[in-house]
Fold this protein.
Amino acid sequence: MSGSVTIAGLGPGAEALVTPEVSAALAEATDVVGYIPYVARVAARPGLTLHPSDNRVELDRSRHALEMASEGRRVVVVSSGDPGVFAMASAVFEAVEAGPDAWRDLDIRVLPGITAMLAAAARAGAPLGHDFCAINLSDNLKPWALIEKRLRLAVEADFAMAFYNPRSKSRPEGFVRTLDILKDACGDARPVIFARAVSTPDEALRVVPLPDCRPEMADMRTVVIVGSATTRVIARDGAPFVYTPRSVAP
Amino acid sequence: MSGSVTIAGLGPGAEALVTPEVSAALAEATDVVGYIPYVARVAARPGLTLHPSDNRVELDRSRHALEMASEGRRVVVVSSGDPGVFAMASAVFEAVEAGPDAWRDLDIRVLPGITAMLAAAARAGAPLGHDFCAINLSDNLKPWALIEKRLRLAVEADFAMAFYNPRSKSRPEGFVRTLDILKDACGDARPVIFARAVSTPDEALRVVPLPDCRPEMADMRTVVIVGSATTRVIARDGAPFVYTPRSVAP
C-alpha cells in the first residue's frame, strides 16, 4: 500500500464545522500528527496511532509525517481552522522542499477547513464582506517592522483586517503597538471584533469601537477583525450585527 | 413557530466540502433562496420551497428572505463558498439596516463555508500560508481606481493576493489592467495560480509565472492567486506545489 500525507483542517472547534472530506480522511488514516490540542480532537480507534507534539516543532513534525508516508503509512497532519492559513501546510511544503527528492513524489494533499477569521466573521455578521487582508501578528517568524509596514499599508488601502495570533504571554507588546498604529492611522471609531474560541464552549464575542480597544481584550485564542472605513454596525437588542457593504461609492 | 434567516455557505462545489452545520440547516428549512446555480445544488423535498433568482438581484432576494422570516418561515439563503466573502451575507445585512426595525430582531445567523480561495490554495499547496489579501476585481460595485490603488498597495505590502471575479464577458478589460499593474509593480517571475471551479467536474488548475500570464487564463469561475515575493514553487512530476513560507528573514 502506498503512503500519503494529508494535511487536514479541523475547523475552529465544533464538530459541525468539520467537512465530510476531512472526516473521511481521518477515518482512513493510520497515523495522525499535530499539535497536542488538535490531535486531542481526533477519536482514538484500533489501527490509528496518534502522535501529538508540542508547539513550535512544526518542521520536525512535518519531517516525521513525510518519513512515515515514505514507509507506506497513511498520515494525516491536523491543523485547527484551515491548514493553509498560518498553519501546518506551509511547514510540510518547507520540509518537502528541503528534504530528499523522493518526498516530492509522495501523495500529498491539503484539505481545506473553516478558518478562524471566517468563523469569527460569520458570528459577527459580515465584516469581511468586501476586500480584506489577513495578517499574523506574531513576530516569531518575521521582523516586527514588516508587520508594522503591512498594517500601515492595509489602512491606506482601506482593507478590513483579520489578525491571527494577536497576543501571547511571551510577547504582549506587539498588540499594544498594533492598536496604537491603528488608532493613529484610522482616526475614526470603526468597529473592532474580538472573537475568542468561536464554536467552542469558551466562545466569547465583543464589538468595540477602535478608540476603546485595549490590548488585554485579545489573547492567543482570539481572532481580531478590524472593519474598514465603510464597515457598519447595526444596533439591536443583544450583540450588534457588523458588516461591510459590497459597494463603495465613487 | 418563529421565523429565521440562515445565510449558509455551500462551499466551492463538492458535497464533501459542505459542513454538517449547513446540511442540518438545509434539512430544517422551509424555504431556500439564492442565485439559480446555487439553489440548484439543494435537493428538492416535500415541505421545502426553492426560490431561485437571477444574478445582480441580491438586495431584492435579501428582502424576500427577511419578509418570509417575518411570516414565520425558516429561510436559508445559500451562497457558494463562504457567504461572508463577496457573497450574500453583506447583502442581507444591508437589507436589514435599510428595512423595518422589526427585521433587526429576527433570528439571523451566518454559517461559514469553504471559500473559493482556500479551496484553490489547498489544491495548489499553501500559497496563502503567510499574510495575504482578498480583492474582488469586479468594478460593478466600486470604482476601478480603488481596485488599482489596492493592487499597488498590496504589492508594496508584499501580500500574497487572491482575486475573486477576475474577469467577465461584460468587463474583460479590468483583468488586462490588473496583470499589467502586477507585471509592472512586481518585476519578478512569481507564481500565479489560476484555479477554475475547484472541487467540481470542471476543475482546472494551472501555475504560471507572472510574466507569462494572459488575461484569457481567467474567467468568472476562476479564482486567481498571486504569490508574494517569498512564494516558492516545488517542481515535480505533475503539477508543482506552490507555497509561501511561514518565515520572512529580517
In short: The helical segments of chain A are 20-28, 36-39, 58-70, 88-98, 116-124, 144-157, 173-186.
